[in-house]
Amino acid sequence: MKLAVVSGAPEARAADLLAYAVSPAPKGDANKAQTNKGAKPPAKKSSSKGGWVPEGLQVVDAALGGLLAETIAAEGFAGSPGQTLSLHTHGKLAATRLLLVGVGDLESLGPDGIRRYAGTATKVAERHKAARLTLVIPEGEPVRLEVAVQAAAEGAQLARYRFSKYLTKDSTTSTVTSVELAIKGRAKLDQALARAAAVSDGVALARDLVNEPPATLTPVEFAKRAEAAGKASGFKVSITDEQGLAREKMGLMLAVAKAAMPYTPPRLVRLEYSPRGKAKKHICLVGKGLTFDSGGLDIKPADGMLDMKVDMSGAAAVLGAMVAIARIKPDVKVTGYLGCVENGIGGNAYHPGDILTSRKGLTVEINNTDAEGRLVLADCIDYAITKDKPDLLIDLATLTGACMIALGPTTAGVFTEDDALAADIRTIGARQGEDFWRLPLNDDLKGQLKSPIADTKNTGTRMGGAITAALFLKMFVDGRVPWAHIDLAGPATSDKDTDYGTRGGTGFAVRTLVGLIDPR
Ligand SMILES: [Zn+2]
To answer: Which domains does the chain have, with CATH numbers?
Structure first.
């Protein structure tokens, strides 16, 4: 897709669709108010009927001979958030069609509001089979121009995403092939566009991986895709196979993997990005990459197994973030680990009752083979800490249904003892349109993991299941590095299309990780 920043009067741009973000009509005045907050009346009377026209669009209404005000009144458009109005310009503007997108109060519109506006406009453009889209960028506080341009560019690119490779008929690609971002003055914004492209490509890769069927995206294939991504984006990739895992004594990860071997052996994938100069710090990301989770011998019921190809969403987020980071090149060293395993039910499956020895040395009594993600993560976390000694380690996993029960399907749980980090993740996430909520690492629940015959069990009771999973991981971090655990079981996928998302994998956490590593 072609993407460019243009300046000057947007209403003079030739396009198939010209889009504006608008504030709601003043209260109780949707069809009457002419001015807003004492603003100067427009130079030209905007409409013979004097109906409401959003601020800044009077000149467009005048060019249309009052058609905009009339349509707004006729259709009861109030500019409420999410509401759209599109009309044909009948040759009176250079653009064929005009679109207004209600976004709430423009004066408090954050980056994600702009991303959503751009996504909505792109999807409306697709409905009208438009190829050329001009997005008028809302300018002013509270968002800097380059941030606004980046967010709009991301919204448009993310909204065009499709997973259509398996559709033999009706294979769809977006009709939108060129997007202009119209700004008032002139500014050099190449960097913002490049950053948006890097982030959007990272999110698209994460979505692709989540959407792939499990027979295609095996651990071996996941590792291959990581290698390809590293080659394309410029980060190092090294892969450890099952023999390597055995040499590393990664007894938990291997035990989970055994049931699916030899057909789908596990892979531990290490990704490394190093800045040219001296790194300010070193952040390590560890992702759970269960390419399919049957539950193991504690097999899941059919309904519960249906979506289990998505159990690698944490690893997908780590790889997607690395793609963006390697292209943005922050002064931070970032290493990523993908723990790629299938939890199968073959004859070598580990049993409930088994006692496994972890890489760290702790022994684990298995009381549920479906709590396999934390086993894989525990060994990967220990490996990452001893190999890399990072300044901060964040693990990401579709870890527990309990987290979804607690927070709903669109919010990720954050567990950390670092108050500032928890606040940062939430604030940066909000700017990225990704919702995080902190849950307690309540040590009182640790008793649930107590085993009479091993150092720990792998699960607790149903009460506080997301918390006991985090407490289990905490034992393997063991205070050696600052750490946060993110449970994204809910928001990793969506069951419906959204402003700039599609049903299926969301690529959740890619943008927040990039924002956390390279804030701006
Ligand atoms: Zn499981």
So the answer is: 2-24+79-186 (3.40.220.10), 198-517 (3.40.630.10)
